[in-house]
Specification:
The structure is a homodimer. The first copy, chain A, has about 375 residues and is α/β, with parallel strands linked by helices. Helices cover about 40% and strands about 15% of the residues of chain A. In chain A, the strands form four sheets. In chain A, strands 2-10-9-8-5-3-4 form a seven-stranded mixed beta sheet, with helices on both faces. In chain A, β6 and β7 form a beta hairpin. The interface between A and B is large, with 73 and 73 residues.
Amino acid sequence: MTMSPDRIIPTRHLFGPGPCNPYAEATAALGLPLIGHLDPEFIARMDRTNEGLRVLWGTKNARTLPLSATGSAGMEAAFVNTVQSGDVAVIAVNGLFGERMCEVASRAGAEVVRVDHEWGTPVDAERVAAAHPNPTVIAAVHAETSTGVLSDIAALGAIKGDALLITDAVTSIGGMPILADEWGIDVGYAGTQKCLGVAPGLAPFTISDRAFERRVPKPQSWYLDLGLLGGYANGAPGGQRAYHHTAPVGMVASLEAGINRILAEGLDAVTERHRSAGKALQDGLQEMGLELFAAEGYRLPQLTTVMVPEGVDSAAVRGYLLENFNIEIGAGAGEFTSTVWRIGLMGPNANPASVALLLGALKEAIAKA
Amino acid sequence: MTMSPDRIIPTRHLFGPGPCNPYAEATAALGLPLIGHLDPEFIARMDRTNEGLRVLWGTKNARTLPLSATGSAGMEAAFVNTVQSGDVAVIAVNGLFGERMCEVASRAGAEVVRVDHEWGTPVDAERVAAAHPNPTVIAAVHAETSTGVLSDIAALGAIKGDALLITDAVTSIGGMPILADEWGIDVGYAGTQKCLGVAPGLAPFTISDRAFERRVPKPQSWYLDLGLLGGYANGAPGGQRAYHHTAPVGMVASLEAGINRILAEGLDAVTERHRSAGKALQDGLQEMGLELFAAEGYRLPQLTTVMVPEGVDSAAVRGYLLENFNIEIGAGAGEFTSTVWRIGLMGPNANPASVALLLGALKEAIAKA
């Protein structure tokens, strides 16, 4: 067996749907000494990290923490803690991650009422609210990674009734405002590898007191049981931390550094940076004669979906970009694999240089690939 | 809110039950450029990592991979993929992690038949095999992190009959031989933060063809569904990788580097290094007049359990070590919280300098704390 430790590692421009290139601060934190998961210094770090996450989520929820797995596990945690056999989950489906919610909720035992939307369009809050008279949960994706579409979560929150509102914020957190408390989000989950600018591996999570009180008493997942995780992250009522599992201490340090980086720049400035980079990219693509996929008015700046031109080989262009420019962009999701590209400008990549590089390289790739 | 990025980060000697200090190579890998999870370079890295894991597991199992969460999620994956309502799980309990297996198996719907052992003693294979005539799975912990005890998994494998054998190798992998195929292990899970010398965050996992064929067709966990994860890690039958979730690409790079580091030294040499450091520590503790907790003949070299002397405040000693020497050791588990210390010399910490440091510092701490 050969396992050479000295192979060349390419320096990619990660302009796909994630991971993006991390903020330098988030990477640097991974090189600092590891601290044990029960060390007072780590507990203080977890507290600071959770406090930073509260700012990004726009919440005062005590139970706000990074779960020890990737964003998809955050989705699973949201459902296994809120629904069980006999409960009704109304799920807005306008892309791959809404589809996935149906699968995950169904495995948690819920009766799933799915409300389908054309891919590329936003969630219609009225239709979702009308789908069932008395659901246990209503769920929707804020920023659909598969289609590049933004949906109005506040509109859903306003008409959710007694249901708990679950929101996927994987691609929005850290790149655009989220106001969980104001919008009425009861359970939110996200990932670290998009606009937070941190490597994948954690799922920032928040749950309201209201949702926590109604939680499934003994979820089918021990690992994602929020009743046990409360003691792990925030201390039991007496203030004592309870051992649940070994926290991924290095990744938490990196997340803290990424959050610090974002807050140092300021949430408004970070939002504006993502907005203006996305706008410049979308304008540039249209000037090249390309057609955007997501419905106008609902386009995510941090993740642009664009139609592959007639007669162009989608995979060949992506290969050309990777080989010649070290640029990664994403294929489309689901049935749009070969007809849509997904271009992310997230975290540190949301800047004018990335836009110029991508537009120049893509033009050449389409011509020559 | 103050989130200072420039606070001092202590350089700890992580001599507790894990995480240990990582190998320098594993840390350095985290500073290198991130690669996308669908990048051909990352797929090649995942293949190399899985090949290295096969060496450490002592297996030819095609389905050998790092799950994208910590070791406890590995335990959950082992059970949710092998047992469901009505299945019988015979579980050997000789410490905290055997206890946890019962809880996790029960949440997966299994009828749990627990075979209790006195903490500090090894698993009695004959008793376990006699506990039920026809169990679906038999499960045991190879190296009990809570008690510092090694159990003979090969003895269980020899008499498992038709049952699948699940083994927790969290604290053994990378520090002592595991021969999964020879011993008859059908499903094994581990963690990265012990003898592998990598930060916590992944669960090295292996499952035999026999176990995979019998797997639960649609496990309650989507995130840990091995039927879906097969495509993610090893390619579908046609060789195509399927997107399941975003792999924690940075952590996988670090794991690959840690495995390379271990294989470069050689498994025999690494085993001997852990053995001799553990022996020197245990000899030294006994020379100080301390009494070891784990039964003689079954003591893990990489994780030593020692009785707190009469009249000594366990927590005060641990605090003294942390404050004065930057040394972390662990409290006991379960009912032994204040009567046992757990001292790990794992990964790069398994060396004579760590032994000398720990013994000198502990002597002072006991005298002065």
